[in-house]
Structures are given as structure tokens and as C-alpha cells.
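Q: How would the C-alpha cells look for this protein?
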Amino acid sequence: MQNRIRTIRKYNESGQLPAELRPKLLTIARESRAELLKRQNQAQQPQPQPGKLTAEQAEAQARQLLNDPAPAAKLTDPVLRKRLYAIRDLLALNLVSAQTEDALRKKLAVEREVLRRRVAEREGTPPPVTPPKPGSGNTTVNNNVNVTNIQVILNDRRRSDELEDEELRRRISVYRDAYRDDRYEEDDRDFYEETLQRDRDLLRRRLIDERRRRAAQLEIKGKNFDIDIGLEFEPSAPRRPRYVFAQEAEDSELEDILAAPPARRLERKYSIDDIEAEPEIREAMPAIEIDNVRFGFNESFVREEEVGNLDRIAEIMEKIIAKRPQEIFMIEGHTDAVGSDEYNLKLSRERSAAIKKALSTYYVIPERNLKTVGYGERYLKIPTPDQEQENRRVVGAPRDAALGPQRLSNTHTCNAIGPPLQGGPIVLGFSREECHGHRTHFFHHQAGCDAAQPDRRHQRQDRSRGAPHRRSEAG
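A: Here is the predicted structure in C-alpha cell form.
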């Protein structure tokens, strides 16, 4: 059924459908999507609520999940999703023992990758390359298309303009780790770093060129997109999940969420401050966990090589805005619980601002259509004081149905942000770590601040002590 929806969408967007067939096929696609939502609702179990489940019952459910002999690779997507949601729901209740929590988190990390690789393969978006450290014994990266030997990439001496976009991203990902690792020779690390900067600069320019191309296509297409944008609560409509993870959802599911109406009737229109202060309003709107842009510990920036991970979400947002220019999307920033409340709140605002800047810089999404808010550690997916990747996240959700005419702007941006490719730096966020007395900015052009090119004498001094110089972009 997903293949049917995907095929119809492909032909509809290509403009190759005969006029007399288009309405019939689009009706089939809508009916298929409604049936999929119905099946998903049947597959998902009700989320356990605090107070309705004792610690003993939570432990029993956890043991049942941990002892389930069915390997994730053998499960269908709906069954695997159900198991992942069950694990997340149990962790969110914070009722299981520390040992059980650790086991559930490990199981979640392993099994979610199975589903994410399946979705990536079907949607044609290979998952990000994560190269191993030298000496780890693992010398390959599985990008779900082929297995690439890391050493081949490290020995790649081609010019940046000789590489396709995916090859650039792969090389950037490998060189990003290699140039900071003192187990490589210093001359090699210098080469990796210099090549990394050239690769990123070219990739950035290609992203801007691609944005121009899409802008021209959207102008030709106008408002002729087959997207049903919901603004009012529909009691008879199929129930949608409260949230989906971008890497675990099909394109049709992402579109459903971004164009979804409220999950319940709203009493009035609200300001951004209202939505930030009242969880009930926030929970009335479906949302997407943007889990394919990964924030490291203490980081709030988007690297060029990760911008493409926003493609699937951003391209749907572009179509919705083209059809309804006043549509508003909320970008929420979240952190884990490491650090003070005040600092995490600030960091979460910077993360949401980084995603907003990436969307408005590299996609046809005006800043006026994006509002940002930071929640810090207020809404932990997994209640734990430890570093947890699922808690360091950004969430995107449609909010126009809930927002009133007074739309407040509390976007946190960096004063160094300049126009794309006009000599000023593009800064999609910044880390709080310091580099030789400078706050280190990212997405610089050559005319960027001095911190973009730290003194190489300091680098060599650090390396001679066996501690490689680390810019704030450490992954």
C-alpha cells in the first residue's frame, strides 16, 4: 500500500498523469492513506499513563519486551514500530529499575536502526555515515547501498568538484573524524582538514544552487499541490499518532503530520508564549521528531553535510507553504538533562534557531513561516540525568491552526548571520565551547570571523602533547 501511494505521488509530481486519470488516482491515494492510518491505530497499543501502572507492572512489561525472541529484522514495519513505541513509553514513565532502563535503551538503539535503514532504503535517503575510530577493528561503513572501505575514502585525492553530492557527504563525514585523531600522521591530518573545508564550501554552494532550482519549480507549479491541509478538528478523521520520528516514517506519513489538523477542538487562538507555557496546547498538534539532524553533547549547530537530512521534511513544507503561504510551523528545541536548567533552556533555543536558519537558507521556506521555541530539559523523551541522544532533538509541528494573529517572535539567532554567498558568514548555530578565546562559529565563508581559521601553531602544539586540537564541531 505504501508502494501504491509512493508511485501515485511520483507520477502526480512529474506531471505525466493524463488529466482524466489524475482525480481517480489521487482518490485511490487518499483512500489508501486512510486505510494505512486505520491499520496503524489498530497496531499501536494505548500509551501507559503515570499512576495507572505500578513499578512492578512496568518491570514485567519491560521483561516481556527484553525477552521477546523475535529479532527486529524479522518483524514487519507496523510490528516493529509498535515495539519501539512500547519501549519508549515505558522509558518515559521512569518506573523501571536502572538495570532494566539500561537494557531497554540498548535495545531501543539497536532496533530503531533496523527500521530507519528500511525507511531510508525505500525513500532513497541512505542513513548518515558514521566512521569508526582508527584501531577500532571496524574498517567499513554500511550506508545501506554498499559497504565502503574507510581507507579508500581516506586515500581519496580527487578534487571536490569531481565528487557527487553523496560522495562529498561521505568524505566529509570520514575526514571530520580523521583530522582530529592523533593516531593519523600530522601531514595526513592537515590534508584531511584542508580538504574538509573545501568539500564543505562546495557542498554549501551546491545546496544554494539546488534551492534556486526548487524555487523556480515551485513558482511554475504555483498552488497546484495535492495536499489536504487541515485547520479545524475533524472528529471523524482517522486518528494520527501524537508524533513520528523522521527516520522511521514514510514520506506520506510525514506529509500527514505536517498538514494535520488539531487532534482536539481548540477553544481559541493562542500566542507562542501560550503554547510554550501550556503542554495541553502543544499536545493537541501532531509533531515530527527531527531525529536525522544529530546534535552532539553541548552542540547547537547544523553541519553542511547534515543539511540534506532535512530534505524530506523541508520539501513537504515547501509545498504546503506554496499552497497556503500563511502556514506556520513551530520548531522546538530540546536538550538532555546534563547541565543547568538555565543553560539547557538557552541551548535548546539555539538548536531550534539553527534548524530554522537551515530551513530558510537552503530551502524555499521564508523565515516568517517558522517560529521557534526552546524547552530545555522540560520534555525529556527518556527521563535520565545521563547524556541521551533521544533527548537532544528538535521537533517540527504545524501550528497555524492554534496561533492567533499576534505571532510573537522569540527566535534566538546569532548576530553574525549574513546573506547566503555574499561574502558574509552563514552561521546556523554555535557551540558554547571556546576556541583560543573566540566563540567558534560555523558555516563560515572565507570572510568569516577569525575563529573560523584557528592558529595552526596552536594546533601543532596541542598535537605534540598527544591531545588533538578539537574545534567545537566535534561529533
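Residues 128-147, 406-475 have pLDDT under 50 and may be disordered.

The two ends are 38 Å apart (CA to CA).

Upvote if useful.
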